[in-house]
Amino acid sequence: MSEIYKTLREEAYEANMEIARRNLAIYTWGNASAFDPKAHVFAIKPSGVAYNELKPQDMVIVDLEGKTVDGKLRPSSDTDTHRALYHEFVHRAFGADAAMRGICHTHSPYAVAFAQARRGVPVLGTTHADYGPEEIPCSEIMNEEEAKGSYELETGKLIIKTFIKQNKDLLKMPMVLIAGHGPFTWGKDAAEAVYHAAVLEEICKMALFTFTINPQAAPLPDYLIKKHWERKHGPNAYYGQK
Fold this sequence. Notes:
The chain has helices at 2-21, 79-94, 109-116, 126-131, 144-148, 151-165, 190-213, 222-233; strands at residues 31-36, 41-44, 60-63, 68-70, 102-105, 175-178, 182-187. By secondary structure, the protein is α+β, with helices and mostly antiparallel strands. Helix 1 (2-21) runs parallel beside helix 7 and helix 2 (79-94) runs parallel beside helix 6. The radius of gyration is 18 Å and the shape is globular. The two termini are 35 Å apart.
């Protein structure tokens, strides 16, 4: 297991460093994790440690029951949210070959602004359509009973409930806004999860500017959304190099 832990720690560390490099969080805000679906463990940023103080060996290894299996520091306070999502990816959605092996949570201001407004982000333009063919969902506000319980675990459950209720596909829409809180994103690895966090922030920034210029701005027509999504992700995708 030691080699798996080392690999996960290095991946999680690089992802967390990318959060800071992309200005997606300041001080100790935000976190990223890297998951091994066969070992059922993930590496995550330790709680309350500033990005400029982090080292790869500081990443904490946690299992899907929430137990720290390796590491000297306390894991992120958001660990149970990550755990709930990985549990969903493996046991309910994708199995041992889970396509989702990284999660990122940031406090990037434009994404947080939409979360605080409790508003999803409609597909206003082709940039959004390239990364998701539908509105970026925003959850309902967590109720008092849930907040008094295991708050972080309930946050993970809230994400799952949001996708079920809004009939969203976790693979096609790798990002969500938690009402009053902020964004979570995921990907095939921790690096892609942070990439999606950066993309989400830019989409929210563009949407805010769009609504500022035209508060009645309408979503892009379905045929343009479909075109831009499929040219990157469809069966006959032609964007980029082979």
